[in-house]
Design a protein that fits this description.
By secondary structure, this protein is an alpha/beta fold. The protein is built from 9 helices and 12 strands. The two termini are 26 Å apart.
Length: 286
């Protein structure tokens, strides 16, 4: 359920980002769709040969996008990112060190490893009566985590750290078995902030009847995701049809074409849609 909500929210973000972009209204191109990737030895963009995985991907995308697909080999990820920024390729695999400038490119999908919970949305909440207003204010506070497991503890910790929060400076950490017990601990003075994932927070706060506001005495201090370690990024001026078509193709690639998927995301179990700035730190905002 958490991953489904993330998928729907991300597709909504894709829609908003594209409708706000005049270039998105351009007609879909018919020229080669050029994919840039660091493979150690640089080479010109070309329809792949002698590489079964690359060939499978080119055939699969070419049939769906209705245009030829070429693979462009680069010595480094930095070089592939520079080519994407210069519109010399249309799509490239990047990492955090080569996060794209959102004026020229945007992350589209990221691989999820088998042992990863994915980039679920995390929440830090505090009583309205407190002076805690942003991630900058959590240092020295007593935190309570609202459940057991990676989605409740290690995932939110990573997300907070990736976005400028100094999780290591918490005065203490307590774990309660349920969100209800965690929020009660804060209300009774046993903790200053509550940390959890967004689905748990929404369930806690939605109320049993219309008009109920179980969390009316709390503010969401911060909400965000862990940075993606790597992501496939697309030119920012890509037409809307190609963007949505490509996102739909790639999230199903592990099921529809395992050979192509393994070439794109070795060791992963799926490609998940991500927000444009998934590789970039958001900073310790409110």
């Amino acid at each position: 359920m958490v991953r489904l909500r993330f998928f729907v929210a991300t597709l909504a973000a894709l829609w908003v980002g594209q409708t706000a972009c005049p270039q998105a209204l351009a007609e879909a191109p018919t020229g080669p769709f050029r994919i840039g990737i660091a493979l150690g030895t640089p080479g010109p963009c070309a329809v792949p040969t002698n590489d079964a995985g690359a060939e499978a991907l080119a055939d699969h995308l070419g049939a769906r996008l209705k245009r030829p697909v070429e693979i462009c080999r680069f010595a480094t990820t930095e070089a592939a990112g520079a080519a994407l920024a210069a519109s010399q390729v249309d799509f490239a695999l990047l990492d955090q060190a080569n996060a794209p400038d959102l004026a020229t490119a945007r992350a589209l999908v990221a691989p999820r490893a088998k042992d990863s919970i994915g980039r679920i949305m995390s929440v830090v909440a505090a009583p309205k009566s407190s002076n805690i207003a942003s991630l900058k204010d959590i240092s020295g506070t007593h935190a309570v985590f609202a459940g057991q497991g990676a989605a409740f503890i290690s995932g939110p910790k990573a997300a907070i750290s990736d976005n400028g929060g100094r999780i290591e400076t918490l005065a203490s950490e307590t774990i309660e078995p349920t969100p209800e017990q965690a929020v009660e601990r804060v209300r009774t003075g046993g903790a200053d902030i509550l940390i959890t994932h967004v689905a748990a927070w929404q369930r806690l706060c939605r109320g049993a009847r219309a008009g109920d506001e179980p969390c009316a005495d709390f503010n969401v201090v911060w909400m965000g995701r862990e940075r993606a370690k790597t992501a496939w990024a697309l030119r920012a001026d890509t037409d809307r049809d190609t963007l949505y078509r490509l996102a739909g193709i790639l999230v199903a690639l592990n099921l529809e074409n395992p050979a192509a998927f393994s070439w794109m995301a070795p060791g992963a179990v799926e490609l998940t849609p991500v927000e444009a700035g998934a590789l970039s730190p958001a900073g310790p905002g409110p």
